[in-house]
Batch of 4 targets.
Target 1
Amino acid sequence: MYNVLIVDDEQEIRTGLKLKIDWAGMGFFVAGEAKDGQEALDKLEETAYDLMITDIKMPVMSGLELLKRCSVKYPFLKVIVLSGFDDFHFVKAALQCGARDYMLKPVVRSEMKEIILKVRDEIDDDRNKQTEHSDTQWRLSQSLPAVREQLMLALISDEGEEHLLPLRSDIAMLQLTPLMNEEALIRFLCVEIRSTANRFETGEGQSGLFRLAFQMLSREIVENSRLEQAVFAFPHPSYPNIMNYLISSDTVEQGEQRMLQLKELVHETLKLHLKVETVIAVGELHEGLSTVRQAFLSALTAWSRSQAGAITQTIYADKVTYPAEKLLLEVEKRLLILLENAELERFVHTIENMLQSRKVSLQDIYSFMLRVVLLLDQAVTKNGLAIGQTQDWIFPITQWSFTTHQSAIAYLKELAMIVTEGIKRSRASGGTAVAEAVRQYIDAHYMNEISLSMLADRFHINTTYLSELFKKQFGSTFSEYLVQARIRKASELLADPNLRLADIAELVGFANASYLSSVFKKMYGVSPNEYRTQRAEEQNR
């Protein structure tokens, strides 16, 4: 039932309108009456109305003034005005103020019924559109957390302005609030759960459910702590027992307060609900979006210094010291280049120089090992190498066995040998593995801004060579494949009748619905709407 409000300064007219037609039979209920515009506004404040029938000439507040106010405050309210022959010149003004139609006094039953039915169809249409929009917004809201987590992983996976440039627009579009202020102070907390019971052994079943519970509870901690606008929780696939928290703040004092509040909440909540010990690593405070990776690595490095075993503990990142300071800059880039060129001997020689050039502490060794392992893991991913779980290469329980720089060098050399041999095999196969890694990256990130030069930088390949390699491997150019990937996904989303074409275009990475329609028709021979209709008919057969 749709609610109706009748507004007229004459009681006889209000009563006559109520009795003129079968309101209930047409899906309406006369829920209120008012004798002037001001009383009508009071009624509208108290109850939600769908239709208002109002006279134009009334005391206190005229129908025209009422219409002007309703058009601003109640834009979805349908209004029909009553007019006598002597004030018909007001009707045009009423229609300009948003009235849907008018009726001349005395009101004829058949004419009134026709107008009411027409307005009811408009209300039905509005309701359907609102429902579709709400459903679409709900679906988008359900997928947003996962997309934000993927964006966060992309931000911490590499550094440099060229890497950040295509991600800046995504931060705003996905409303990743803690990073929307590019000058904010940021730091990370890495939270690991440990238990004396064997609940985290690799495999399916209970361990997977327990980790899922850990991740869900970690997100709820943020949602329930009034820190949601300043903190973002996300897992990293290489560290399944760890949840990471990005904390943003405007001042050092505010950042410290938020960090302490979150740290206590995490300790208490996980202990209470999961009966586990927590290892919390607090990273250094950094400034600006360009420092996200360094901020994350400082927390991860702090975590690498944690004491082995199921012991609740908090580790704070120290100020960057030798050799980490150099590794963050020139040495890290040099090591990546040597890995990509599969120059094992020079790679090992660089590591030896870092660890043997001066006296280093065990803490420096552990921090250095973690950074190098992260570089090796990065090389494995970029080259699409089929190598086992790299997160097993270094773990707090493992690294304590390396008490000298010689043992650390030997271990890192062993891992580097695995990676460089894999890169050599990939190159010998004609770049098949690299091309496949690029294809997989496109399939996973088709909705983002992707260019051939960006991929070439990411995978450390010459742009022209990558273009030729990709076309040779898959029979289409990079641009053609990207468009095809987006269109394939769009065709899947068209199965959902609640998604508008504009929503689908945004979800798959097209600039607008018109461009999507044009490309879709070239690929499928029909427009997206025709394709949607055909699929619906096939499913109903």
Note: The first helix runs from residue 11 to 20.
Target 2
Amino acid sequence: MPTDLPPTSVDPDAKKGKLWKTILVWSLVGLLGAVSWTILALHRGETINAVWFVFAGVCSYFIAHRFYAKYIENRVAMPDDRRATPAEYAANGKDFVATDRRVLYGHHFAAIAGAGPLVGPVLAAQMGFLPGTIWIILGVIFAGAVQDYLVLFFSMRRKGRSLGQMAREELGPIGGTAAIFATLMIMLIIVAILALVVVNALGESAWGVFSVSMTIPIAIFMGCYLRFFRPGKVMEISFIGFGLLLAAIIGGGYIAGTEWGQAIFHLDKIWIAIAIIIYGFVAAVLPVWLLLSPRDYLSTFMKIGVIAMLAGAILIVRPEISAPAFSEYIGREDGPIVAGSVFPFLFVTIACGALSGFHALISSGTTPKMVHKERQTRFIGYGGMLMESFVALMAIVAALSIDRGIYFAMNAPAAATGGTVETAVQFVNNLGLTNVNLTPDMLTQLAQNVGENSVVSRTGGAPTLAVGIATIMQHLTGPGLMGFWYHFAIMFEALFILTAVDAGTRVARFQLQEAVGNIWPKFADNNWKPAVWGATALMVLGWGSILILGVTDPLGGINTFFPLFGVANQLLAAVALAVCASIVAKRGRHAFKVLWVILAPLAFDLAVTLTGSWLKIFSPNPKVGYFANMQAFQNALAEGKTSFGSAKNVEAMQAVVRNTMVQGSLSVVFAILTIIVVVSAIVSMVKSWKLDGQPTTEPRPIPSRTYEPSGLIPTAAEREVEQQWDALPVDLRLTASADGKHA
């Protein structure tokens, strides 16, 4: 190996431009953001323009990434590009693969951006536009993006260790074991709910099933193209893949209109669930370059493109939102969509768009094994979460842009609406909503416009978001294309979520292998196929069983399981933040000066999730408490009733009893495990203070022999070093190419 290579890092404080220009630009961004926030906070008219949501979010995100994330990088993470990352020193061509930062940003964003940023904001729109908007934007800046960034960085420094394994090494056997069990169990719930949203979106939709199915061969083609035919040609294959994706969408509309297309692709929800279970296993055992990375990059290309298109359409159309800042259900527990008051249930309903423990699993799963240079973690971790928050913001705007009566008719379960247009209209008009007067024609005309038989009780959030996107886009392209935009959005959402399902399954496999590897070291070997296949099968069997429960749930599945998903997800975030706090504290007392960056979101998250857990476990209100609901149905069965509430027969009543028992029991287990982890972290931090630090669990640094810029757009200094590396002979050029192979 030659020693006279160009530099492997660039001084991050190198001069980047004229100071006065920088001050002017950021002053203008700050001013626009302040004006937008003021209008959102103080406006109390009948309508408010949606453009202020876009401006408030974008300005806040730019400022946060430039200043707050930079503060965290300099004071908490302290990356050093002179150190080799696991993708360089442990490269194996399968899991540890140095990947182009732009492709890895796509993979990471695609993996973390599942159902949460699409479904949660849509459901939380029941409470009005202001609470959800505040939590989505401020929550991500001070909590969600902080967690994602630091977990990614600390995992990368520890050879891509999973969250559970890091907890075991940092917190000791008690806290570590609790964290391992918590992450494994919560992961099963999260992946199952992600898959359930896909099932609800694609159920009995031949167009959607065909289009989403075609993304699999398209992604495999992209992976082979980059691997064997045109290595490094990222933009080239991106445009090819995007063109094939559009062809799949357009072709899906044609095929859905044929008899043979309906016969093949018009599937019941249970069969779609089985297909997703099979897909989850196959996708998790294939090499990342073959399906995971190209599919995620393709879906990211699609996701960011659609969200940018929606944001642009909002700026052009300037839709007026009639929903109030605070709705009638802000302090009530009897919401028809989300049962429970704004605190704590808003903060667990909007999970992935602001703070998500699931992200910690991705940030300590596939992504840290693919990071090329340490300073890229800010762009990938913090920046990726900001993009997801923007997705959540666009989702709540789209949901709020449709008529409020239609919104409630679509999202309330069939047990409440009756499942027909007439009964849904009666249900909504009896809710006592201000300025809402729903008519049957409004629902039937909407269904006709989007090419569906009915839009009543299309729960899960995804159909509502699709209607919102179609409603906004049809102002630009005409009402005749509303059906295209609706199914385009459905495909976009399913693609959005499926990437999280396959990445989540792979991460769950990593976690199980590491956990069992503590007892049987051979099982932790990622190159031993019996362990890889066996761990994957066990994880798929676990979340697949929960998925089947959700699909067959008489209460609507998503309406009852999503609160469990939200609470479990945020409890997992508490585990991740506690582990990060313990790691930073071990540096010594001087590190406690910056520990507030982690402890502040941790304290708020614990207040929210433990309160939510308490209410879901002990609330006497059957609409809120799992066990109260279970008891109500048990009493009905004991009295010999053959129907009760939403259950129309004895089998359905028994299913409610079974599901609520499972949900309530899991809520108890998750809360106890989280408390054990947090207490263990507190003990570790107190010890670190007393001893002025503890030994690090990071492996000894290995000098890097490669180079790549840190952000999306290289600085002048980075371009200069990049040119030096490009001038080397091919056999000495060690920069990572887009498919993860060394050039």
Note: The mean pLDDT is 85.
Target 3
Amino acid sequence: MRFKTQGLAIALVVSSLLTGCSLDGDDGKDGANGNNGSNGSNGLNSLIRHQSLATGSTDCFFGGTKIESGLDSDGNGTLEDSEVTATTLDCHANTVSTSGSTLPYTVLRGDIDDGAEPGRKFEIRNGGYGSDMVKHPTHTNQFYALTDRGPNANYTGDQGKGKLFPTPDYTPRIGLFELQANGDVKQIREILLKDTNGNAISGLPNSSALGGTGETPYAILADGSVEVLREDMNAPYDETTNPIKLDDFGLDGEGLVALSDGTFWVSDEYGPHIVHFDADGKEIGRINAFANDTRDVFHLPAEFAYRRANRGMEGLTVTPDEKTLVGIMQSTMYLPDSSVKNLDIVRIVTVSLEDGAVSQYLYKQQKPQNSQSGIVALSATEFVLIERDGAFFAQNPDAMKHLYKIDISNATDLETFAVSGDWQQDAQLGLTKNGQTLEQLVLNQGWEGLTNAGIMPVEKTFVADLVAEVAYPHDKLEGLWLINDHTIGVLNDDDFATWSTGGVLEQKYLDAGHSKVDANTLYIIDGLELTPEQ
């Protein structure tokens, strides 16, 4: 049995080997083709659209082209906004050259001898739009600009020191200007400033009760002679019956705000006053430090009446929500007197337009007696301001015309500073220590006299040097036009192209060779970092 079993197993193995070595058979015939599948849907078309951008565009301020692309999802052959997946911008270059774009002007008077060029007459130009500038609330390529009190010069006459007014009937005004595609500036409108009754105001000084500092006005008559300006120019001066002509509505405007409701706020160097004007230039409200002024809707702290002559509230802006005015004095106030003149301490004030609530902060200048001559809000606490000297670059290569960003959020509010012991709030002088004003403390102890007590100035960051940017040739950098978060426009005060040396009037020249007359000139600086941090 064991033998038979082995034989069977061998037979099976051999059989398996023979089977594994056999050849494959021929392939069978192909089966019939299956039915075609249904057609797939067509792919989406890619679309492109081009849009020309005008000057003032939020995408390209100087104009250009916006190129948008995407897929035609709804198949209507038109690229809808919801279908845009990519956008590129081809922006034009800055159309305002580094030499700037001059504003148009007319001639107010051309019959006065040029004291700088004997035998020649000079032009008093209108002009004068440079005390401040501000963007139009809705038209992005337009701006408003402000004049001051009108052409004037230092002069001493029979009634003492004062100002010589070659056009004493000049009315301060606001101009509306538009930047053209080629970089030119066109004037659109002129708004004369008026009193509460709708009468045109002047730029003549106020009475002493409302901030006047005793500046006596003088006029140049048609024959070239100079006389004190009086109520009746056909009668001789008399202190009682024909006194010096003053104007309690007169303004020396320096700061400008344009609100979205069409009204304006103007700050000045006389009071200082902050005056509210309607869209046609008529006064509708006022803020100042004089408690007895019945025109006031709110009051500044009493210490602001100690402004230094010709260095009042040089800058004014409003927070983006249009609820708070923010003003800055030009230089150190005479608080309490001129002994503090040569300092670097400057006051900033904020006024709520809802209830008149006031805050005060301190700014530390780069150099004593510099000028803060413009301010514009980036946010509720951040601002760009001008700090400058009074030099012409052509005559002084060290001329300083700077922009700084400041932040008041960590600065000390002088109105809420905790008083006790030596520190008190004086009704006339504001915050004091042992009866000394903050200006006196800086004079006697330096800024440490304040910071050691916890009084901190606003934080400041350098933004731009206009001399380095455009070889800025003018002495008075004063206007700021915030265009966007990287572009700003600046404007100078040309003093109506009028200057004086030793009380003698002359053309205002930019250079010692008298080859170029000063003029209101717009410069636009881009590539800046102006984005608020808050």
Note: The chain has four helices and 35 strands.
Target 4
Amino acid sequence: MTERPARLRRFARLAPVLLLGAAPMLSGPAPAGPLRGAATDAPLAVQRAQFGTPAAEATPALDLAEAASRPPLAVGDVLALRLAPGETAYIRLPEGAGDLVAQTRRLARGTDTVMALVDSQGRVLAEDDDGGEESLASRIEVAADQAGPLFLRVRLLERTAGRFELALQAAPPSDSSVSARTLTEAVSRPELRVGEPVAVELRGRQEAYFRLPPGLQDLVVVTRRLSSGTDTLLTLLDANGREIVEDDDGGEEQLASRLEVPAGQRRPLYVRARVLGVAGAFELVALPDTAPATPAFPTSLREATAAPALELGQSVPLRLRRGQTAFFRLPEGDIAVLTRNLRRGADTVLALLDQAGTEIAEDDDGGGGLASRIEVPASEARPLYIRAGLLGDATGEFELVVEADAPLAVTFPTSLADAASAAPLQPGVAVPIRLRRGQSAFFLLPPGEHVALTRMLRDGTDTVLELLDAEGRMLADDDDGGEENLASRLVIEGVRKGDVFLRAGVLGDGAGAFELILLPPGGR
């Protein structure tokens, strides 16, 4: 008799027991011990029916190639599985069986399944963690028009062991009162009617898809009337399912979403709605976009040049559509340009430009949180311009403000020559530093081994430390080696020739505020 491979012998030892989908569900909790009829030394144990069905049919495999050689799981059948830590089961699906739903159920205590739909090359077509009916169970929908052969890949989260059932059932008929759950289904559904809200209720990883009407007018698609704890996410898709734009918290209500859809955008277009979290309920509605077609602010350097310059103390309310930016000419003097009162999920970005449009400086979060701030000294030659936009070309609202910015008195050396004539940096004493754009702090270091740290970084500051010799040549540097995010840490050896200096600056020569401290070796 020909010796069979070990993996096939492992399955041959299992006593198959059939669980038909039409049979009653077993009551009570999953058994605490090994499954009945399962070989206790086999990491992957299976229960399947014996109603005249050979034991080898539709048994799981430990790899895709092995699963491809096995008969498919029949619609209505249920497999009871036990997986060892790190083990993966592959099950072949039937072809030509219509729309299907595969889900895990009756999970033993502590079991958390993850299921994926894969093609014959192992490419993941869909994946689900907790979308099943039970807590921690998984659910995958398989459309009838998806080309086979297709397979289910089932794993357990966190490399644990666990027991559960895998059931394959025919998908229920589409309910026109329930939102489409796939892009394919949305294609055949009626389009979303402008002004008519749709009630949506989603679990975990579920999604709802909607076809948008023809591009006869500019639209906004919003979520509203969110139930307690609901956090929505909207995505605009093209006919191939490619993401065009996404919004999380840009809606009027807290945690609501908002998408702008111009009339000129090529159709067909679809909206995908999700919830961030376990579940949620909300309304989704498409409304006419009543925002003026022509912005009330300059949208180019040329327009900004022809418009009056901003004035000190002036606050300009801005609402930017997707991809829009605003340009303004700046006044004379020491000024700070900043954003504030951010709404609709706005994350602002400011850029300082010269008259040719060359970018001199840029700031994202220097104004605190998601706000921005750029300081412009009086010594910088005008004309200068500010470009205000949103990160990722999103939509949002905020105020752009110009304030007088009197330079603060500098309490530290700002050049190598100044540092050479000043007292050395004192170990153990924190030095508060606030740098304007293009500024650096320089310090003569005392003898011995030390560790230089930046800490207490404020308003998005990203520090850089450099060790320099007396000629200004860099001996060592560090950007993000500190304990805090974006902080720096530089080890300074005790053996050296001549004086050495420490330069503390901000990445990209931007503005920033932080503390600098010199500690003994090993200090953090």
Note: DSSP finds five helices and 34 strands in the chain.
